[in-house]
Amino acid sequence: MEFDQAIKPAKKEELYSQSQSQGEPNKQSEKPLIDPTITGAKNWAPLLTRLNDAQIRDVSKYITMDEFTIEVNGGSRTYKRKKIKTKDYRELEQMRARYASMSSSMEKSELQMQVFQKAAAAYLGMTQEEFESCDFEELKRIIDVQNVRTNYGVPNSDQITL
Q1: Are the C-beta atoms of 151 and 84 separated by less than 8 Å?
Q2: Rounded to the nearest 10 degrees, what angle do helices 136-152 and 45-62 cross at?
Q3: What is the count of structural domains for the chain?
Q4: End-to-end alpha-carbon separation of the chain, Å?
Q5: Structure pTM?
Q6: Per-residue H/E/C for 37-63
Q7: Alpha carbon distance 141, 62 (integer Å)
Q8: Tens digits of per-residue pLDDT, 38-82?
Q9: What distance separates the 2 farthest-apart alpha carbons in the chain?
Q10: 58 and 71 inside one domain
């Protein structure tokens, strides 16, 4: 099957159902045909604010910690934070710069996982096998905070408030 015509995106006025009542066929109704939360960023603002607040809580929780317990292979493993070596940090930053300039989403996703694996090895001493079988959600939060800690240092605990 070949496609010989392009379908143009709908115009804004076409996204709303037409009111056929009261003899006004061109009057737009209040209800959109397409959910505005999908098309309008302002409706995402409350959720994004809550997510940002959660990220700030994670930073506050992990920034002063030196030991982290992460689920690996169905069990718990405790890792002790290591200071990152300049060579490792340089390589991570070069990988992040390459990531930012890439256009292929498949290549980007693979490079992003390589960045996390390298950071997990540098900050926690995590092996490739442990990385592949760990709770990634927890690991990602910990690694993200370690990068913040490397860049900004550790504030006094009385300076951390929510």
Answers
A1: no
A2: 70
A3: 2
A4: 58
A5: 0.66
A6: HHHCHHHHHHHHHHHHHHHHHHHHHHC
A7: 8
A8: 555 566 777 778 888 888 888 888 888 999 999 999 999 999 999
A9: 74
A10: no
Rounded-to-integer distance, Cα 110 and Cα 117, Å: 11
User: Quick one: tokens of 115?
Assistant: 């960045």
Contacts of residue 146, defined as CB under 8 A and 6 or more positions apart, other chains included, come to 62, 81, 84, 119, 123
Among 162, 158, 154, residue whose Cα is nearest residue 62: 154
Q: State which residues form the domain around 45.
A: 33-62
Tell me the two tokens of residue 5.
């015509």
Regarding whether 69 and 47 lie in a shared domain, the answer is no
Could you tell me which residues come within 8 angstroms of residue 85 by beta carbon, excluding any fewer than 6 positions away? Answer: 122
For residue 152, CA distances in Å to 4, 57, 92, 100, 146 come to: 55, 16, 17, 22, 10
